Amino acid sequence: GAWIGAHRAGVALPPVGDAIAPGIALAQAIGRWGNWFNQELFGAPTTLPWGLQIDTVHRPAGYESFETFHPTFLYESAWMVGVALVLIWADRRFKMGHGRVFALYVLLYCTGRLWIESLRIDSANTVLGLRLNIWTSIIVGLGALAYLVISSRLRPGREQIQTSESAEAQGSAQSQGSAESRESADMPAEGPSAGQADASAEDDAQPPSTAGSQP
Question: CA angle 74-76-34, nearest 5°?
């Protein structure tokens, strides 16, 4: 959807990603509260004051005797709000561009997932003893970090965003300016005025005066 909208507007995809990254983070922060209503994707048992009380029917096998669990949805929601604020601050502070705000969002999101996934106790596929989502977060996060470093060196600063409409307007103005320049160059130089030509003719018709003429 973002790519289609950017293509129709004539804008490159990286600046679009930079623009929507804080909004995506806030949307994720709000969406995670659905896990509070359906009592899903919570963490390990805890006795902390903010522990989430889970009904017996929703407790995983082996955890029936525990009542309160880590509210991982709350942790991730708070984390993503912080991510959105960091993205806005970093963009204003460091003049980020060329997709680096979106890359920073991906990096921070993956970092939070490492922490959240380590608290969860629901069943999941594992590789070398780690949940698959943890491996995914590591790989994607490293890719985002590499993009941040390489892009900052190759294309520092922000890009000049130009839509198709502004490009057409600029091209039209340049074409009009070029046409006016060609017309000015093709115009012939103006000759002497009619009055100046008559005065010159009269001067040529008068005979030269002779010095010391007798009456």
Answer: 60
User: Phi and psi for 122 in degrees, rounded to 5?
Assistant: -70, 160
Backbone angles phi, psi at 196, to 5 degrees: -65, -35
HSE on the CB side for 117, CA within 13 Å? Answer: 19
| 186 vs 119: CA distance, rounded Å | 79
Structure token pair of residue 186 = 């093709």
Q: Tokens for 125? A: 């596929």
Q: What average pLDDT does range 71-91 have in this prediction?
A: 97
In terms of C-beta density within 10 A (0-12 exposed, 13-18 middle, 19 or more buried), how is residue 114 classed? middle
Backbone phi, psi, residue 111, to 5°: -60, -45
DSSP characters over 80-118:
HHHHHHHHHHHHHHHT--TTHHHHHHHHHHHHHHHHHHH
- Contact, 151 vs 99, CB < 8 A? yes
For residue range 26-38, list pLDDT tens digits in order: 999 999 999 989 9
Q: State the DSSP code for 147.
A: H
pTM of the full predicted structure? 0.72
Q: What is the rounded distance in angstroms from the CA atom of residue 32 to the CA atom of residue 84?
A: 15
Using the structure block, give the residue that is written with the tokens 């010095």: 211
Residue with tokens 């994607």: 140
